[in-house]
Amino acid sequence: MVGLGTSVRNLLGDQDDPTADDVFEELKNRIIVLNARVWENRIDWQLVERWLANFDGSSGLAPDIEKLHALFLLSQFLYFGSIEIRVLLRALYRDLVLVPAIQEVRSINGGTRDESLIGRGLQTIFSKTRFLGVGTPSESGVHLLYYFRQENRLKKSQFLDTAQILERDEGSSLGRRIRYADVKRYIFVDDVCGSGETAYNYSKDHLEDIRRLDPEAQFFYYSMFAKKDGLELIRKHTAFRNNVAAVFEFDESYKCLSPSSRYLRVVPPPIDPDTVRHISIFYGARLLPTDPTGFDDGQMLIGFHHNTPDNTLPIMWMDPENDSPVPWCAIFRRYPKA
């Protein structure tokens, strides 16, 4: 299998000066293999050709040069299919929820290794814990809870919708009260944290009132994927405080157009990093003038089985369904929220 970290130069072996045609053919073969083995057969070559037709020379470069560099960018795309998502949800529960809970029980009980004592302690912790999604029932964070429950063999009673946390109480100064007074831990599960804005708004809209009604309430935000600065925003400015983590954290090198981009660190001739940046920004500005490199300058090259985040380059996902101002065929579909 061609790994996600394999460069085109590796594929071309010892060939010192491959032609543009050589590189194009190797990229084509790589994408065909990725589609069959990683991308769940979402991207056949006919779709790739329609996507490449978007690059028509408008940026001032020859169309063939634009297409070659666009194809290189596509060959670096990180895609997480349904199997990988389920594995990550198991890892999220094990590493971010279960293991810290075991450590907490052991710490409270003098470092005990007594399995029965640890088991009883975990039962107490999880009786006071509920899992929730970030956003409305139609959004991806909530959608993932179904698979999260399945993969970790959790009970339906361990899950809540945000609307179930509070109930009306005319005698309260806020007109509401905590519905389940014994619940003290609210663990929110999300698929991806980009800028952190979604979790930030969610905290302001929902969690601060809960904290006022129950100062003992604890909130946890755990995501499968996250950008470092997004996590920092949530830690510093939301009710989640330091209870924030991700299974897979993207550093600056995952910003595909940045000076430290891992994707552009080693490229084969005639691929030119500045040309990759030029066409991405030029066509991105046509498609999404406010965020030509993805929401909040995301510069991501990532997609999931269930959706493509808006932090990913718009040239990958923009189309008429996402209100593209110009005709554009997407290569990885994004399902808009509205």
**Overall pLDDT confidence:** 91
SSE topology string: HHHHEHHEHHEEEHEHEHEH
Structural class category: alpha/beta
| Percent strand | 5-15%
The gross shape turns out to be elongated
Characterize the structure shown:
The model is unreliable at 1-15 (pLDDT under 50). A four-stranded parallel beta sheet has the order 2-5-6-7, sandwiched between helices. The radius of gyration is 23 Å and the shape is elongated. It is an alpha/beta fold and 338 residues long. The longest helix is centred in the N-terminal third of the chain and has 27 residues, at 82-108. Strand 5 (185-193), helix 9 (197-213) and strand 6 form a beta-alpha-beta unit. Helix 2 packs parallel to helix 4 (63-75), helix 4 packs across helix 11 (273-287) and helix 5 crosses helix 6. The protein is built from twelve helices and eight strands.
